[in-house]
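Please produce the structure of this protein holding pyridoxal-5'-phosphate.
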Amino acid sequence: MAPTIDTKTPIHHDLPTPDPETPLRPRQPYKLSTLCVTVENPSMKDQYGSSSVPIYQSATFKGVGNEYDYSRSGNPTRSHLEHHIAKISSASRAFAVSSGMAALDVILRLLKPGDEIIAGDDLYGGTNRLLTFIRSHVGVTVHHVDTTDPNAVIPFIHPTKTAMVLLESPTNPLLKIADLALISKEVKERSPGAIVVVDNTMMSPYLQRPLEHGADIVYDSGTKYLSGHHDLMAGMITCNRDDLAKQIAFTINSVGNALTPIDCFLLLRGVKTMAVRMDRQQTSSQLVATYLHSLGFKVYYPGLPDHPGRDIHERISDGNGAVLSFETGDKELSEKIVASTRLWGISVSFGCVNSLISMPCVMSHASIDPATRAARGLPEDLIRLCVGIEDPTDLLDDLEHALVDAGAIALNPQQNKYVRVPPVHAVLNKAVEQLAIGSTSKNTNTVDREWFVSAPGKVILFGEHAVVHGVTAIAASVDLRCYGLVSPRNDGKMSVRFNDIDNFYGEWEVEGLPWDKSSVLSKGDSHPDELDAQLIEAIHAGPLKELGPEKSQARNASLAFLYMYIKLAGTERPSVHFGARSTLPVGAGLGSSASFSACAATALLLLTHRIVIPPIPTPISAEHPHLSHQGRYALERASADEANRWAFVAEKILHGNPSGVDNSVAVFGGALTYCRPGFGKPSGMEGIQGFGSLRFLLTNSKVPRDTKKLVAGVGLMKQEQPEVVGAILEAIENISSQAKRSLADSSEFGRENLLRDLSAMINENHKHLVSLGVSHPSLETIREKTAASPYNLSTKLTGAGGGGCAVTLIPDNFSEASMKNLLVELSQCRFDPYLTSVGGSGLGVLSPYAEHRSLGAGVSRGQVTPPETPDEAEDVPSNYDSIRASFETKSTSELPGWAHDLGKWLYV
Ligand code: PLP
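Below is the modeled complex.
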């Protein structure tokens, strides 16, 4: 049960409410707004009766043993400010320092090595940065937990080690609410020595006084509401405990970060108007939040009825503040909105009399790395609004203009009001939609050809897990493939069959799909960074509503396909069937989903003429039945890039936050290095040129994995043991760069040397992954079996680990007989071994040209290839037999051979 707290208890301050003049007309205690404006300190009367506190712009004071001698230790203007802030904060002591961060720095100096802090997971970015620093430099352990849930905090409270609990409520920028009173009580009960610290910047003492709710220390960035004018930097620390006050005063005097006299003066002046500013700002914030909410945006503001924790907030605070945030569903759209406002200034910070607009992920919270931002659920498209004191009508009008200009809302003539536009490239789509209205005829276009595509899986050779933390990873294609076939139906329906996912079959009326929930992407338009949440929701609620959680794989694959189908085929609405098959084990960490994504994306891009296959120059060498990436370039780079972009969209639907490595390997084949952005070094993907294909044994342990949990586990370990994990990451980075060099220069070093080096690196990399805790007994068994004599092979886990697959390097001279025995041994342990080669071709399309097809009614080999790049509408001959029936019924082992024999495959 939360303790009941009387927030209306009069605060203790030394400006006494005057005695009642008569018993019939008693005096009320002064309201906080009166206290804010009444700067009086009975023990510091001004000798001239000045109505504003003078600025004692003096470093030193004459005399010995007087109250003031040196301004680092104390200054009369500062004393006035500190007295005034203590009064309005229910505090006995207050300290003014040079910034909010300086305030936190002073507070954190109460800690010593070995102490533990529990802090929120949605903190101000600068707070996060300072906590990271003290973790690595002071040896303090920091646990970031979701402080909106007291039950998430409790397990981390240690009776002696927990020294500090650091809270914000509401948080910035997601306005999450923490029950300051309940958490303070739980902390005191479980760890009496721990102190509860609250960053109260978002509220100011006018709206919330955490010392009344059990906090030991409260600090505010005075730069914000206390000052109100963005004309100074300041930090205020308040407390009611003499022992803490003494230590804080000691630090400030030692460090010398107290606020300067002139800034103390300015801050004091600002505080006098705080109540009127805040009242106005809050009222306008409520209007803005309600307006955005009514348009259907996801809005974060404690003043909205459905805001999580609103009841707690009402109990501990006196208002909702003037910061709110909202999601648009599309980062690009958010950027356009932010750029389109005039009255709302683009700026970091908040609390100013002027209204501000910002995108936390690219501004105030950019210092938190993207992986952590994603893990903490901070949407990249989030817009933060800090409402000022301008006329609310003007603020709403300016915001509406910006939303219209950016294409986030549009006038609905029937309703004669602005409504939200689905967040898909909204600006460009305004024009495109006009055109599309005419062209989205109810009649589905006739489809007269099939497209058969395939894409390889991938293995991570080196750097898995470490890649999440900025280390370079090396990924390569495997010659196990996924195949996709899109065939005409022309009966007003569309359907999918996924043979490898319980042989799932789904069928829908084309016109019954939620077309109205998505705007069409016209040719040449790329998909925005963010997925269209509204369309995803509509597909779940419509075509996929019958698929329960037991069918989650089929549901996800269908969702990815339907999403792309609706986005890409919106103007044509073709009635087609799509089938996908895989020779890759599904869900074993070999990139089966990315190769599915690449196939689905490519099939749809071909179907909708967004990519075209140019005719192949003849003659094609007879030795090369397939045109591959290795110098025999057949699919245009621009087409491959487009396929890759859409495969990435599908991967996002399937995985939330993919790195893009798997789909890039599925499309481009070969091997590549990858480094995530956001770690202060060159990021992105780079192909490894000159990489020759290598033989590997892939062994599927068949133990299912929870990739997210494994990644989170390593993240936690990194937080708790930064040095240990840091050293492992460095070692893995070294392996990756050595492997990259060796693979690229294999011809120079000689194949034997390469294989020997790789063997050593495989063993070493695996050892590090074991130290990160991501191996599994089944993987260790595979390692032991393959390492045992007479095989003496090197094996490592690949991908997330915790099950899934192991990769074993097979030297060129490994005997057939040994291979046979090893395969039998592994199969006897109920593992699935696949002998495969690594580093081969990427995306493939079965040539649509008649002379390249060995099957086909009415066409014969040798028919003339069209002389020029075909017209988009009529790019290739169409009259050949469907291969759909064979495709769906061939056994998995027959599939690659059968596909190979169909005709000429054109590879990226
Ligand atoms: N706490 C919160 C919630 C903040 O938003 C900020 C600054 O934006 C700070 C602390 C740091 O304050 P300052 O910039 O004054 O150092």
